[in-house]
Amino acid sequence: xxxxxxxxxxxxxxxxVKEQILRLFKEANGQFVSGEALSEALGCSRTAIWKHISxxxxxxxxxxxxxxxxxxxxxxxxxxYAEQVKAGLNTQRLGCETHFFExxxxxxxxxxxxxxxxxxxxxxxxxxxQVKGKGRLGRSWHSPPGSGIWMSVLLxxxxxxxxxxxxxxxxxxxxxxxxxxxxxxxxxxxxxxxxLLNGKKVCGILTELRAExxxxxxxxxxxxxxxxxxxxxxxxxxxATSLSIEQQGQAPLxxxxxxxxxxxxxxxxxxxVEQGFSAIKPRWEAHALMLGKPITARRVNSATLxxxxxxxxxxxxxxxxxxxxRTEHIYSADIDMG
Length: 338
Ligand code: BT5
Description:
By secondary structure, the protein is an alpha+beta fold. It has 3 domains: 5-75, Winged helix-like DNA-binding domain superfamily/Winged helix DNA-binding domain (Arc Repressor Mutant, subunit A, Orthogonal Bundle); 82-286, Bira Bifunctional Protein, Domain 2 (BirA Bifunctional Protein, domain 2); 294-337, SH3 type barrels. It has helices spanning 6-13, 17-28, 35-42, 46-58, 82-86, 107-116, 166-183, 234-237, 243-246, 254-275, 281-285, and strands spanning 62-66, 70-75, 98-104, 124-130, 148-155, 188-190, 194-197, 200-212, 215-226, 294-298, 305-312, 318-321, 327-330, 334-337. The protein is elongated, with a radius of gyration of 22 Å. Mean pLDDT is 92; it is low at 7-14. Bound molecules: biotinyl-5-AMP. Acts both as a biotin--[acetyl-CoA-carboxylase] ligase and a repressor. Keywords: ATP-binding, Biotin, DNA-binding, Ligase, Nucleotide-binding, Repressor, Transcription, Transcription regulation.
């Protein structure tokens, strides 16, 4: 799985003009770029360039314009616009096609629609706000504007159905490793889909799939990370936290975090596809919260079980050592510690 990173591929084949303008400013590294140079490089009129720059300004980009010198990019907004996420993104597939929405019901709904319309593997949908963010089992995910990463990634692995839950664990490792690397915060994984800081949930993963008979058609991998939320509604106040709350108000920027996350997710996804779950398992275990601890597993349509969480199996199921010495394999449940 090698080749040019996707932003280089875009450079060769060209994408929309605003993306190309942003790329030229990035390459200019804070120096002026003349309107003439821009219109020559992009093959469009200076009026068209001016129009695109005005649109970028409206989106929050700040330019200095100086007669005879041209334009200089002073500041980019921390809104994960598709152009920003894709600029310099070092991936082969993930994020090559990226869609940004100010507001959506759920990025999962959007990614499902794109998937059904034939979108390629690696397509990403990012929203600044979700008004009907989804959790598992019909639960909701609080996703106010400007405060988090609400993102869905389309994957099309050739995978047997029973292995699909492993992708939640692959994603959990990618998120933990990225956030630890970017912020130093010691996130822990609570099987199967929660990431916690100081015992509170900072991130949730929602893995949905469409399959025909035994074959996976696609997987919609939804990731929600509370980045700069300063507070939560009362029903979440005791159970939720954000990266900024855990860093005394310091929130990392969303756009670079998303980029790094896509790069890490792709690295681990390719590793998983090539070498199987055994290549990921030790990295998951290194960040697992409850191994060796007593837990309660509340299952849908099955009895609640209590025991000691002793690990995960090769499928990614949680292994629960029961009082009578038996080991139960838990495929899906909500876990309470103790
Ligand atoms: C999850 O479900 O944790 C999966 C969350 C996935 C969210 C992403 S955002 C992008 C993509 N698009 C979507 O529409 N969804 C995905 P679950 O394990 O069922 O947890 C849901 C529970 O977490 C809720 O019932 C609340 O108790 C709690 N919760 C809701 N919003 C939260 C938040 N922002 N932070 C922490 N906890 C939250």
